[in-house]
Amino acid sequence: MSATLAYQWFEAGEAVLVDVRTDAERAWVGFVPGAVPVAWKQWPGMDMNPEFDNQVLAAGPADKKVLFLCRSGVRSVAAAKRATELGLQAYNILEGFEGDPDTNAQRNRRGGWRFNGLPWRQG
C-alpha cells in the first residue's frame, strides 16, 4: 500500500503502524511518532528478532489492521507475511520510510514516507 493511504488509516485509528527497522535506524534516520517499534532483524549482525512474533502480537488490538514500515519496503514485506501467518490483517507500506534510491543512489527523493511529507521526527 502507499505511504499516504497507510497514514490515512493510521491517523483515523483504523490501523497500528509497526516500524520494523532497527533501533539504530530509528534513532539516526528518524521515526514516525506513534509507531510501534518491533525490529524484524537486529543490529548489529542483522539477526532475526527472536521476539518478533510476541512483540507484533502485542503491538495493538487484534481487530485493527497492522501496517508495516521499514527503510525501503523489503523487510516490511517479510514482516507483513509473517504477521499474516500469525492471523493479523497485515499490510506492507511500499517504498518504506526512505523510498527507493535515485540515479545517484540517494534515498528520500523517490517515494516513501518522508518524501510524501508525512509526519516524522529525528533524534
Description:
With 123 residues, the protein is of the alpha/beta class. It has helices at 3-11, 23-29, 52-57, 75-85, and strands spanning 15-19, 36-37, 41-42, 47-48, 65-69, 90-92. The strands form 2 sheets. A 4-stranded parallel sheet has the order 2-1-5-6, with helices on both faces. The chain has a two-stranded antiparallel ribbon with strand order 3-4. The chain is globular, with a radius of gyration of 13 Å. The mean pLDDT is 92.
- Give the CA-based shape: globular
Low-pLDDT segments, ≥5 res: none
Mean pLDDT: 92
Class based on secondary structure composition and strand pairing: alpha/beta
Number of helices: 4
Radius of gyration over C-alpha positions, nearest whole angstrom: 13 Å
Portion in helices? 25-40%
Distance between the termini: 27 Å
Number of strands: 6
Largest sheet: 4 strands, parallel
Strand order of the largest sheet: 2-1-5-6
How do the SSEs run, as a string of H and E?
HEHEEEHEHE
Beta fraction of the residues? Answer: 15-25%
